[in-house]
Amino acid sequence: MSTNEMENTARTYRELQAEIKTLEEQADALKQIMIGEMDTKMVDKLTAGAFTIHYNLYESSRLDAARLKADHADLYQQYTKRTASVRFMVA
After folding, report:
1. Residue range of the domain that includes 36
2. How many domains does the chain have?
3. Range 81-89 contact pairs with CB under 8 angstroms and sequence separation of 24 or more
C-alpha cells in the first residue's frame, strides 16, 4: 500500500470513527427519551409495538482491587495476573 493509500485509509477510518461517535450520541439521546417516558409512567417494562423495553436496577459484586492492594499488598501480588494487549490509534 502506498503512502497516499495509507493516508486515505487513515482518513476514512477517522471519519468513520467520528460518525460512530455521532451515532452513539444520537442513540444515547433516544435512550434518554425512552427512560424519561418510563420514569414518567413509573414503569420498568414497556411494550411498544414489536419492542419490549426494560429499564431495571441491578446490583453486582466487584472486587475493590485498590483497597485490596492497599490493605493486603502481598495477597494482591499473589493473585495479580499480568496481561498484554495491543493498542491501535490513528492520530
Report:
1. 3-62
2. 1
3. none
